[in-house]
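fold-stage: in
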Amino acid sequence: MDKNQKPIVSAIIIAGVLIAGAILLKDSKIPDQANLPANNNAIITGNPAPVGKEDRMLGNPNAKVTIIMYEDFQCPFCGAITGLLPSDSPVIKSLEQMEPNWTPFLPEIINNYVKNGKVLFVYRDFPLSFLGPESIRSAEAARCAGDQGKFWEYHDYLFGHQNGEGQGAFSDPNLKSFAKNLGLNDITFNKCLDESKYAQAVANSLAEGTAAGVAGTPKGFILKNGKIIGTIEGAESLEKVKSKIDATLK
């Protein structure tokens, strides 16, 4: 490749990351969903795999409404929706510039919909290849933490310690340090990570997400009784996600 073309290619890649994570505003119609609220803005190109025992879940497994989120631990927009990023982080500022009243949706959805049994929340890995191997390794590490009953604690720790993509923040030594900080048995955790115990599981999640039409993160599917009702496109605001869930619960 001509050296003069490399800056152009890099710019295209960066722009792609921003577009994939940003909030999509374009409406689209969904066949056979005549009662879908107009503000749902759903983009559905495939069906996510059914929720199973291998999934990482929060809430009532028998809830009528399920949210399946495909995410990457390095993705700054995924970090944004958790509410764990500092308010002065660049990605938060960019979202607030697009939507002044933007606030992360996940904390309230978990506290006011998942914990009371109305909604089941499912996290799935979708490591973005252009963010580098740390996306895959952090996904594997979180699953290793899950072996000791601390997937969600490790999930929060990762999102709370984002520090650039592919810059070493989620190197293997750091991932092991995180586990130790959370009180995990480091011998067991390190063995799990070193042996890449969950490499195939992460690869399978990526393949399933791709088959469901996931192209960027965060990407969510809202289901009622197993049927897709709407989607979450990028780092949407609490107000938008809440309105979709409220409409689905009716």
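fold-stage: in (second)
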Amino acid sequence: MSNNKKLTVKRLIIFLLISFVPGWIAVTIMWSYYGEPLYASTNESIAVPVYLLGVFGMMMPSVAHLITRLVTKEGFKNTYLGLHIKCKMGYWTASLIVPIAYSAITAFVLWAIYNDGMSLSETFPNVNMQTVGIYIFQIASSVILLFPAFGEEWGWRGYMMPKLMELMPKPVAVLVGGVIWGLWHAPLTIAGHNFGVEYPGYPFSGIGLMCLLCIVMNAFLTLLTEKTKSIYPAAFVHALNNNLSCSIMFAIFGSEAAMMKFAGIPSPEAFVPYIAILSFVGIISLIFLIKKDKAKKEEALGKAA
């Protein structure tokens, strides 16, 4: 291994330690203090501390990014903090359209699987200008969530992924980076975030599903970041992803009966169609991500011949 790669590995290890350790410590302390899984609790007094844990936890990858650059004297080149809006506008547009599209498709698929005789019009009777306006406001309000989303993205896509892509082929880097990102969520998953604690295979099946979700999302977010050379499209997708979930779509457009039916679907089970749909997004993203590299290799081989 060359000295440059050894330095990259060193920086990556420092970054990951700073990203991972505080979350495990915080969840362990809070769980010990409250005496129950944080995200599966019915104790109202725990809501604010848990919310703050999530917000500050999302900032840790960016903190790790910053500290690693300072400690290892890396400097601040190639930070992905520029906007570069005029170039690659298609990818900026995709950061808005794609999350809305896969959220809507997932809602439709969940209806198709779990409709139990309920028609589409009975499930979503509230599709009118008023509810569309509410949904647009929900999209606009995602800007508020951009700050914590940036906290994760500047760490994962702005630092971890470029380092992994220095060390291994892009498809492998996307896989490894997605697993790392999924495992970073493990303390929250164990504490009941996303899936609760009462499901088959708890907590390992939940951690596994989270890793799968993070792998396919990682492909799309890495594509956006690499093509635009900016972290903001990925951060916006992350914010939209947290603010435009299927449950929100059902709450805005769905009937009360549909909401009750949707709420009754076990969380891990509801995630499977979501991950399946996102897999298509991930595969297409990976193709676009490696397409340019493949063309360059073919061009280099042609010149060599």
